[in-house]
Recover the amino acids of this structure.
C-alpha cells in the first residue's frame, strides 16, 4: 500500500499519512495543524505545548484488539476538572479507524457506531440499548480540547467545551456519546486490560522497566 | 521499551518539585497521573495538575498524624506486577457513636495504572476498580457479579481523616462519601459515591504476611484482630468438601457393610444348656466340651440366655485355646427386673446378653464358666451359644460416627465463624438472634458456589 504524502504548507516538510482516511494531521516538525483538502494541505492552526501527560502509549504504538492488529496514528487530549485524558486514534490493519482511550491508565477501545435516538440530555443511571446491549450512564463529563497530535479521521482543533456521556454495562462493554458534533457521535466498544492489548512501541518510564 | 532507541522527547521522568506551602521538596511518583498531591512535611493539599501546585487545602495533622505501614515509594509485586505506593489515607466511619478507621494505600504502575490496598486491624484487601457494573437487581440486599452473589454487609459514610502523597482524584480532608460493602468471601465489592456518581471496586482478602512478603517489609505485620467482613472462613470451604467426603465414605461404608454381611459366615460352633443351683454352694466352675473354630481369624460372639425373672446371674467366662492355653477372660451379667408402680409397669434389663471377642484365631477351644447368683435363688437354667464370624453392625456404626463427628464439627465451627463475621455487619449485633441469618448466609454461599 502506498501511503499518501504531501508537503507541509508551513515548513515544507514531508507529511506521510499512515491512513488514507485521515482528514487532519499535525506536522511533526513545525507542529502546524493541517487539514487535508482535495488537492493539498491547509494550515488551520498550531499545536500549543501538550500538557504533562503520562500515557504509556505514543504514536507508533502497535497492539492487538480481538483478532485485529492496530497501530496508533494520532490523538486528542481532553482536559476536565479532574485532569486530562487521551483518545488515541488508531487504524486497524484492515483499514478501520478506532479509538483507544487512556483515562488515568484505564483503557477502553471503541469504534464509531450508528446509534438511533441519542439523548440530548440524560441522567446518571439512565439505560440505553444499542446493538442489543444495554448500557447505563455512569459519568457525564464536560471537557475541552487541550491538544492534538498525528492523524485524525475528522477535523478537530480549537473546539469549545464538549459534553461526553460515558456508559458502562454489566459486561465490559462501554459506550461514549460525544456531543462535539450535531447530531452527537456514538462510540461502542469495551473496557480492556492493558496486557490484553499486547502493546509494543510503548514509552519508557524513568525508574521502571 | 528497548534502551537502544533514542528516548522520545518528553519521556516521563520522576519529578522533583517544591511545595508552595513550606518549600520542602516533593517527589511526584505517578508522572502526569496524579490529580492531588499532599506535602509530607506541611500537609498542604496541592493541585497536581497545576504547574504551580496551587494549594487547595491545608489541614492540621498534628492530632491525626498517621504513619503508613508501607512507606510511600515502596515497591512490591501484586499479581506479578510491580506497583509503587504513592498515596495513603485514613478514613473513618461512625457506627453507634463509635468511630472505626481504616487505611488505604494508592498503588501505581505507569502502564497498568492504579490499584489499592486497604488495612483494618491487621486485615488487608487488594482492590481494583470494576470495569463492568454489578447487577443490582437484588434490591440492595445482594449483588451479582460474574455469576457470583454478594451479600450486603454494611453501608456507612466514610470521612477522609488523613492524607499523604498522590491521588488520582480530588482528595480533601473532611470529605465524606457513602460506602457500601457486599461480600462473597474472600471477595468484597464496594460502591463508593459522593453525589450521583458511583465507583465500584472489587477487593480480595490478603493476610498481612502476604503484604509484608510482597513489599519486602521488615519485622512482622500487625496481628489481625477479630474477623473481617470478607475474611475467608478457615472452615467454610471445608464444609462442603467435608460433607462430600463424608457422603462418599458413607456410601463406601454401606457397600462394605452389605458386602461383609453377605460374606460373613455367622457360623454357630457351640450351644448348650446349663443349670446352676445357687443354693448348692461349693465350687461352681466347670469346663465345656471342646469345639472348633475353623477358617480365618474372626470375631466370636458369645450369647447367654438365662431364665432370670426379677433376679440376676453373673457368669465369669474364659474362652481357652486348648492348643496354646491362651485364654480370653470376661464376665457377663444377665439380669431382668419388672413390676408395677404408680407410673404403671416397668422393666429393666434383659434375659439375654451378648459379647463379642474380636480377632480370635482358629483352633480347638473350650469355655470355663463360673456362675454366681443370689445364694437363695435356687436353680437357674441358662443357654450358652457361641458363633464365629459374626457381622458387627456396631463397627459400622462407629465408623459412621467417625465420619459424622468431624463433618458436624466443621459445620459448627463454620457457622460460628459466620456468626462472628455478621455480628459486625449492619444486620447483627452479637446479642440478637441473627444466627439463623448466619445459617442463611452459609447456605447462600454454597448456592453461589454451585453457580460457578
Amino acid at each position: 500500500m502506498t501511503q499518501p504524502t504531501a508537503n507541509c504548507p508551513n515548513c515544507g516538510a514531508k507529511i506521510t499519512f499512515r491512513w488514507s482516511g485521515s482528514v487532519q494531521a499535525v506536522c511533526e516538525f513545525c507542529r502546524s495543524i493541517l487539514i487535508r483538502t482535495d488537492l493539498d494541505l491547509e494550515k488551520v492552526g498550531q499545536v500549543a505545548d501538550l500538557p504533562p501527560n503520562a500515557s504509556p502509549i505514543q504514536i507508533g504504538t502497535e497492539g492487538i484488539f480481538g483478532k485485529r492488529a492496530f497501530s496508533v496514528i494520532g490523538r486528542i487530549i481532553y482536559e476536565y476538572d479532574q485532569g486530562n485524558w487521551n483518545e488515541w486514534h488508531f487504524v486497524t490493519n484492515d483499514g478501520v479507524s478506532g479509538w483507544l482511550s487512556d483515562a488515568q491508565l484505564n483503557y477502553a477501545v471503541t469504534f464509531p457506531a450508528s446509534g438511533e435516538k441519542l439523548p440530548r440530555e440524560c441522567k446518571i443511571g439512565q439505560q440505553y440499548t444499542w446493538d442489543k446491549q444495554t448500557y447505563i450512564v455512569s459519568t457525564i463529563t464536560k471537557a475541552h480540547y487541550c491538544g492534538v497530535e498525528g492523524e485524525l479521521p475528522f477535523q478537530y482543533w480549537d473546539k469549545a467545551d464538549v459534553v461526553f456521556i460515558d456508559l458502562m454495562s454489566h459486561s465490559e462493554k462501554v459506550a461514549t456519546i460525544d456531543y462535539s458534533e450535531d447530531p452527537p457521535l456514538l462510540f461502542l466498544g469495551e473496557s480492556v486490560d492493558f496486557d490484553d492489548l499486547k502493546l509494543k512501541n510503548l514509552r519508557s518510564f524513568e525508574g521502571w522497566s | 521499551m528497548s534502551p537502544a532507541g533514542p528516548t522520545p522527547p518528553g519521556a516521563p521522568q520522576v519529578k522533583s518539585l517544591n511545595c508552595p506551602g513550606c518549600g520542602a521538596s516533593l517527589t511526584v511518583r505517578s508522572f502526569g497521573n496524579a490529580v492531588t498531591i499532599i506535602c509530607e512535611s506541611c500537609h498542604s493539599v496541592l493541585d497536581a495538575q497545576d504547574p504551580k501546585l496551587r494549594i487547595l487545602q491545608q489541614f492540621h495533622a498534628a492530632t491525626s498524624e498517621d504513619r503508613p505501614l508501607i512507606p510511600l515509594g515502596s515497591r512490591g509485586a501484586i499479581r506479578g506486577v510491580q506497583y509503587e505506593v504513592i498515596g495513603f489515607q485514613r478514613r473513618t466511619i461512625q457506627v453507634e457513636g463509635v468511630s472505626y478507621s481504616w487505611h488505604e494505600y494508592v498503588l501505581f504502575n505507569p502502564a497498568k495504572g492504579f490499584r489499592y490496598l486497604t488495612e483494618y486491624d491487621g486485615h488487608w484487601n487488594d482492590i481494583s476498580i470494576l470495569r463492568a457494573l454489578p447487577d443490582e437487581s437484588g434490591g440492595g440486599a445482594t449483588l451479582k457479579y460474574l455469576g457470583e452473589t454478594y451479600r450486603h454487609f454494611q453501608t456507612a459514610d466514610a470521612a477522609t481523616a488523613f492524607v499523604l502523597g498522590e491521588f488520582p482524584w480530588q482528595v480533601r480532608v473532611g470529605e465524606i462519601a457513602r460506602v457500601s460493602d457486599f461480600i462473597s468471601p474472600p471477595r468484597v465489592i464496594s460502591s463508593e459515591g459522593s453525589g450521583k456518581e458511583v465507583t465500584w471496586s472489587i477487593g480480595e482478602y490478603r493476610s498481612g504476611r502476604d503484604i509484608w512478603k510482597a513489599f519486602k517489609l521488615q519485622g512482622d505485620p500487625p496481628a489481625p484482630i477479630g474477623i473481617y467482613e470478607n475474611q475467608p472462613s478457615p472452615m467454610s470451604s471445608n464444609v462442603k468438601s467435608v460433607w462430600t467426603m463424608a457422603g462418599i465414605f458413607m456410601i463406601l461404608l454401606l457397600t462394605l457393610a452389605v458386602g461383609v454381611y453377605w460374606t460373613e459366615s455367622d457360623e454357630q460352633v457351640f450351644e448348650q444348656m446349663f443349670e446352676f443351683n445357687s443354693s448348692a454352694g461349693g465350687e461352681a466352675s466347670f469346663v465345656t466340651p471342646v469345639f472348633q473354630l475353623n477358617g480365618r481369624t474372626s470375631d466370636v460372639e458369645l450369647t447367654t440366655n438365662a431364665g432370670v425373672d426379677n433376679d440376676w446371674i453373673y457368669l465369669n467366662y474364659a474362652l481357652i485355646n486348648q492348643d496354646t492355653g491362651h485364654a480370653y477372660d470376661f464376665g457377663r451379667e444377665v439380669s431382668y427386673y419388672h413390676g408395677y408402680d404408680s407410673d404403671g409397669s416397668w422393666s429393666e434389663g434383659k434375659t439375654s446378653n451378648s459379647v463379642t471377642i474380636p480377632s480370635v484365631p482358629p483352633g480347638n477351644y473350650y469355655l470355663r464358666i463360673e456362675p454366681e447368683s443370689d445364694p437363695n435363688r435356687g436353680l437357674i437354667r441358662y443357654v450358652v451359644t457361641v458363633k464365629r464370624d459374626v457381622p458387627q453392625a456396631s463397627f459400622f456404626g462407629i465408623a459412621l460416627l467417625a465420619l459424622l463427628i468431624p463433618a458436624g464439627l466443621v459445620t459448627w465451627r463454620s457457622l460460628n465463624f459466620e456468626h462472628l463475621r455478621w455480628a459486625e455487619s449492619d444486620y447483627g449485633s452479637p446479642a440478637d438472634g441473627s444466627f439463623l441469618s448466619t445459617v442463611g448466609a452459609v447456605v447462600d454461599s454454597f448456592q453461589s458456589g454451585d453457580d460457578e
